[in-house]
Amino acid sequence: MTEAAAPSTTVSSEAISAWLADRVAYYLECAPADLDRGAQLTELGLDSVYALNLCGDVEDHYGLVVEPTMAWDHPTVEAITAYLAAELAR
Predict the structure, then answer these.
(1) How far apart (Å, rounded) are the C-alpha atoms in residues 90 and 83?
(2) CB 19 within 8 A of CB 52
(3) I need a labelling partner for 21 at 20 to 30 A (CA). Which of 54, 79, 84, 90 fits?
(4) In sequence order, which residues have a C-beta less than 8 Å from that of residue 3 and are 6 or more positions away?
(5) pTM of the complete model beyond 0.70
(6) What is the Cα–Cα distance from 17 to 47, expressed in whole angstroms?
(7) Contact (CB, 8 A) for 88 and 64
(8) Nearest one of 5, 1, 6, 20 to 78, comparing CA atoms
(9) pLDDT tens-digit profile of 54-69?
(10) Distances 19 to 34, 53 between C-alpha atoms, Å
């Protein structure tokens, strides 16, 4: 488990995207490089259990509290990346 980033720490969008791709690929049992970051998570095969786990991963890693619907509200790795970058910039 990685140490959580402090909420005031600036994290690049590239770092967020890479971390998210790694987590989603873990749940989908594929290589992060094989993941289409613009594809709908549901189309990639991410189910509701894994989506909820991803929310917990975000909370643990970045120290943010996110809604359990985050993966549905922001349905791609790119969309979640933009959302998290905005939240971390606050």
Answers:
(1) 11
(2) no
(3) 90
(4) none
(5) yes
(6) 19
(7) yes
(8) 20
(9) 999 999 999 999 999 9
(10) 14, 14
